[in-house]
Amino acid sequence: MTIKQIIAVRTDLNMGRGKIAAQVAHASMEFLRDSLMEHDHRHGVELTQTERDWLFGDRTKIVVQGGNETGLLDLHCRALARGLQAHVIRDLGKTEVDPNTTTALAIGPAHDYELVELTGHLRLL
């Protein structure tokens, strides 16, 4: 059973390759950042078994075209409705985009079968 993370990137912003790479990296780690912020650091981070399996396994990431902001936010809502972790990335605006611009969305880590119906139609970036 494959565990992966899907990262959808906005394609309407015309971000450069380096900017896209940075946004994908931010998105990929957001679930862990949220876990760290949510728990008392003295007692460690509580991760689900799926998160642990992904983090200490092969950490498969699939980067797809997310379209525009509306499409990304719709995908975010649909992922949350399915009980999946989903994290929207908003840029600080230091380089190519304006502050608070939605740039990417990470869904998962989750089992492949939980992601395929939701994101299987999205084209690889």
Uncertain spans: none
* Second rung of CATH, namely the architecture: 3-Layer(aba) Sandwich
Question: Largest sheet at a glance?
Answer: 4 strands, mixed
Structural class: alpha+beta
CATH hierarchy class name: Alpha Beta
Percent range for β-strand residues: 15-25%
SSE string, helices as H and strands as E:
EHHEHEEH
Global mean pLDDT: 91
Outline type: globular
Looking at CATH, which topology would you report? Answer: Bit1
- Provide a count of the helices: 4
C-alpha end-to-end distance: 24 Å
Biggest sheet: strands side by side, in what order? 2-1-4-3
Total beta-strand segments: 4
Helix content: 40-55%
| Overall structural domain count | 1
Q: Round the Cα radius of gyration to an integer and report it.
A: 14 Å
CATH-assigned homologous superfamily: Bit1
Briefly say what this structure is:
With 125 residues, the protein is α+β, with helices and mostly antiparallel strands.
How would you describe the overall organization of this protein?
- The protein is of the alpha+beta class.
- It has one domain: Bit1 (3-Layer(aba) Sandwich).
- 40% of the residues lie in helices and 25% in strands.
- It is built from 4 helices and 4 strands, in the order E-H-H-E-H-E-E-H.
- The protein has helices spanning 17-38, 49-55, 69-81, 112-119, and strands at 3-10, 60-67, 86-90, 102-111.
- Strands 2-1-4-3 form a 4-stranded mixed β-sheet, with helices on both faces.
- The relative contact order is 0.29.
- The model has no long low-confidence stretch (mean pLDDT 91).
